[in-house]
């Protein structure tokens, strides 16, 4: 298992890191690092975890993550299967330390809005709408810039983000992760187990046994490390999958309930409304009205 603390390298020609990833599937585990990270995924889909927030991602997904905030992307299962080897992942990622231009650079009066953006990024930010489109284009362009032009482009990006209203916080204000934790392998083991099995019956005892814990110890460990109970995490993934089926399939709500891993229709309805604030039928109705 790769380490929880990811090390980001920069070259002698640049004070911050930019990379274009083209992969068959995402392999980076749940991790954190001291750098800010701006990522746009232009190809592929799957599940995304930021702190205690979890949701599905699709092409165009863009997040801005602050230092030491754990995050994790995993593609849908078909990306890991040989019969779908034509699928690929493409992402552009920018990493930079807050003090990469000097300790007090971003504390100057002209940087107030960007400093406010940095504070919000400690919870992880999702960028959407027109802002997403504009920033995505600038991230494509920055791949081919160097020197001062590259640095100036980064400032353009940060300035646009700092003034945008098309940004939302992801992780809850209460989420806090101790960055010196030695629990990376256990957390990753459980995340992988959940992601592989959330559409099936998941057994708490089996999950706990994977990291050699009793059920009660496991439940305390999971809540402390992820900010959610084991059942909350599973229900959010299942409801997210149900939302996707409501948008993309012709299955009935009852069929979607069982396809998403729930084995009780009333419980599915309650959890769906708790998480999305609407019923499954209303969710589909809202989606169809947006399509028209």
Automatic annotation (TrEMBL):
SMART domains: HTH_ARAC
Xref: InterPro entries: Homeodomain-like_sf, HTH_AraC, HTH_AraC-typ_CS, RmlC-like_jellyroll, RmlC_Cupin_sf
Domain HTH araC/xylS-type: 188-286
Protein name per its UniProtKB record: AraC family transcriptional regulator
Sorted UniProt keywords: DNA-binding, Transcription, Transcription regulation
């Amino acid at each position: 298992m790769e380490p929880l603390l990811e090390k980001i390298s920069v070259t002698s020609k640049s004070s911050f890191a930019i990379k274009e990833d083209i992969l068959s599937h995402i392999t980076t585990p749940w991790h954190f690092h001291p750098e800010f990270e701006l990522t746009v995924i232009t190809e592929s889909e799957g599940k995304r975890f930021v702190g205690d927030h979890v949701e599905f991602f699709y092409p165009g997904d863009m997040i801005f993550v602050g230092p030491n905030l754990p995050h994790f992307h995993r593609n849908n299962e078909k990306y890991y299967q040989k019969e779908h080897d034509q699928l690929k992942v493409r992402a552009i990622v920018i990493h930079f330390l807050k003090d990469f231009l000097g300790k007090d650079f971003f504390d100057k009066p002209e940087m107030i809005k960007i400093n406010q953006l940095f504070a919000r990024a400690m919870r992880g930010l999702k960028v959407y709408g027109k802002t997403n489109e504009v920033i995505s284009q600038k991230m494509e362009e920055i791949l081919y810039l160097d020197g001062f032009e590259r640095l100036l482009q980064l400032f353009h990006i940060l300035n646009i983000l700092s003034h945008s209203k098309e940004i939302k916080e992801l992780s809850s204000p209460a989420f806090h992760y101790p960055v010196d934790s030695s629990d990376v392998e256990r957390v990753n083991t459980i995340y992988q187990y959940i992601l592989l099995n959330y559409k099936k019956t998941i057994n708490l005892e089996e999950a706990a046994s994977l990291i050699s814990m009793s059920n009660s110890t496991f439940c305390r460990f999971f809540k402390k490390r992820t900010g959610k109970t084991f059942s909350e995490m599973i229900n959010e993934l299942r409801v997210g999958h149900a939302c996707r089926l409501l948008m993309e399939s012709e299955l009935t709500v009852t069929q979607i309930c069982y396809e998403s891993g729930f084995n009780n229709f009333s419980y599915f309805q309650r959890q769906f409304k708790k998480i999305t604030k609407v019923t499954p039928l209303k969710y589909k109705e809202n989606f169809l009205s947006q399509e028209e």
